[in-house]
Write a structure and sequence with these properties.
With 83 residues, this protein is mainly alpha-helical. It is 65% helix and 0% strand. The protein has one domain. It is built from four helices and no strands. The protein is flat, with a radius of gyration of 16 Å.
């Protein structure tokens, strides 16, 4: 694959990512929801190092409902709060 074809493919992928971001923002989300969305995407990453780094940074900014959520941030566990 030539360099220009790779660049064109990369540009299309980045444009698609920008469109997804625009759609999320157009939906009308709060700051906390944005952080939760970023976290949700981060835990789906195949690159474990990136997943851990991003999750650790997000811990500083995200409000968590379950204390276990912080510990299990690298796992995709759904939790239900019962009161």
């Amino acid at each position: 694959m030539s360099y220009s074809v790779k660049l064109e493919k990369l540009a299309k992928e980045k444009q698609k990512a920008r469109e997804v971001v625009k759609e999320i923002l157009d939906f009308g989300v709060t700051e906390q929801q944005k952080l939760d969305i970023i976290n949700g995407i981060a835990i789906s990453l195949e690159n474990n190092d990136a997943l851990k780094d991003i999750s650790n940074i997000l811990k500083k900014y995200r409000e968590v409902i379950n204390k276990e959520e912080e510990k299990d941030n690298n796992k995709n566990n759904n939790k239900i709060i019962l009161e």
